[in-house]
Specification:
This protein has 5 helices and no strands. With about 140 residues, it is mainly α. Keywords: Membrane, Transmembrane, Transmembrane helix.
Length: about 140
């Protein structure tokens, strides 16, 4: 029980703001797909042009070193970081598949960032500026 001398707790309207934005699941998935689409298009266009990111080639080479079912752990030092190498191994070393998985992850991450910016009360222009800057930044395409 609180003391009568205790200060009243201040409640912020942000504390009770909806945690998900957009509120409807269909709208959320449409936004995720819309944010992932530019990255998927770049991955497909770069594949048709014959250009393959060097980092993805190195990751595919490390994925080939994964020894599934081996009881020894000596191979982990060669494939560090092991989770990324395991994913590359599961994808069969396909650099296109790795780029498309990255596009999906970016779509999910950018939608979550947009939800946080809206929940924190930033306006639509500020949210669009932050997301636009991230989508148009070339390092994210690699």
């Amino acid at each position: 029980m609180a003391s009568p001398a205790s200060p009243q707790l201040r409640t912020s309207p942000r504390r009770y703001a909806a945690d998900t934005w957009p509120a409807g699941p269909a709208a959320r998935w449409a936004l995720r797909v819309g944010l992932a689409l530019p990255f998927a298009v770049v991955a497909l266009l770069s594949r048709d042009a014959g250009w393959v990111p060097t980092a993805n080639e190195a990751l595919a080479a490390r994925g080939d070193l994964v020894q599934w079912g081996d009881t020894g752990l000596a191979w982990i030092a060669q494939v560090f970081p092991p989770l990324a190498a395991a994913l590359a191994s599961l994808l069969g070393g396909s650099t296109l598949a790795m780029s498309l998985v990255a596009a999906v992850v970016l779509g999910l991450t950018l939608q979550r960032l947009a939800a946080v910016l809206v929940r924190e009360g930033l306006g639509p222009w500020a949210t669009a500026a932050v997301l636009g800057t991230l989508v148009l930044t070339p390092p994210l395409y690699y």
